[in-house]
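Changelog entry: the Asparaginase record was regenerated in this release. Current contents:
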Amino acid sequence: MSITIQSSSFRQFFTQKLLAAAMVSLLTGFIAVAPAYAQEKPMSTTNQQAALPRVLLLATGGTIAGSADNRGSGAYNSGAIGAQQLVSSVAGLGDLASLSAEQIASIGSQDMSDDIWRKLASRIQKAFDQGEADAVVITHGTDTMEETAFFLSLVLKTDKPVVLVGSMRPATALGADGPANIYEAVQVAVDKESKGRGVMVVMNDQIDSARGVTKTHSTSVQTMQSPNLGSEGYVDLGHVRFVKPAAQGQFLKLPEAPLPRVEIIYSHSNMDALQIEHAMADKAKGIVLAGMGDGNTSKAALAALEKAAAQGIVVVRSTRVSKGYVNRNVEVDDSKSGFIASMDLNPQKARVLTQLLIANGVTDPQKVQEAFLNGH
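Regenerated structure tokens:
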């Protein structure tokens, strides 16, 4: 006869059953090693936790914290599950890190705001400056994840890892991708090679930089990609593998007041100047053009943008195209018009950088262009 004993209950089996007379005949083969197990003392849970990296998990809501709703197929409510519930739902996290969890917001990321950005940045900077955490993981909706990641990458002054993670399926869905994504986000956050890499996004076994990453698909779990820069690395069967060296970023002061108004104007056929004129009338401090091709637009729109730049409004040319760079002085004479070329930054990220530059008093076109070139 043979007995199979699960490893998790092995110690309990000996300590509780070893002396039971009814089991003596079945345990004969194990008696010789019993004293060693009986004398061995378990490691203190407190000591184990103290030896692990400390990770602060900040929850903001999103699909990863969503619960199903019966209003339609696949319908769900974002941000319905709290931070501690998220942590508790992922098996094995306690073996990776000593985790603490806090709720910063409970929203769908389409409602992400400057105020929440400031709360996140302030809490993270405090946690690092006061030695509360070795790394931070942020759960976040995917719709504006790239903007939050990029914002934080510009204002956080630290070499400690910050990892954003989300999911494309709510927690209550079949095949929910959230738990695996959270586990891998913590893996990346505590990996020694993550130091000095700034803010990252981890989803679907990929590690992407805050500058490079963007949402590329409305429903696919492979939505977060880096079309222009490529991924930073991968989480491969439990191993964190970086394929790029760490890159230097730039630091801009976190403004106390609300961020300045910067509008994104989407270019299209038969475009006139009305959208640009409305932005000027609304006292926009900056305008980002989501242009055609390499950041071009109609003659009427370009003329209006030149007027805006002449009035001191920061004008940045980006592109509505999903891949490619917008370079200076190709189809458009940026130097003459006072425009900035966004380079690899898409319109939404170009807007974030423009907001922070204006808030930091950087409005001269040459200085703004230098900031867009930073690291590239």
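The longest helix spans residues 114-129.
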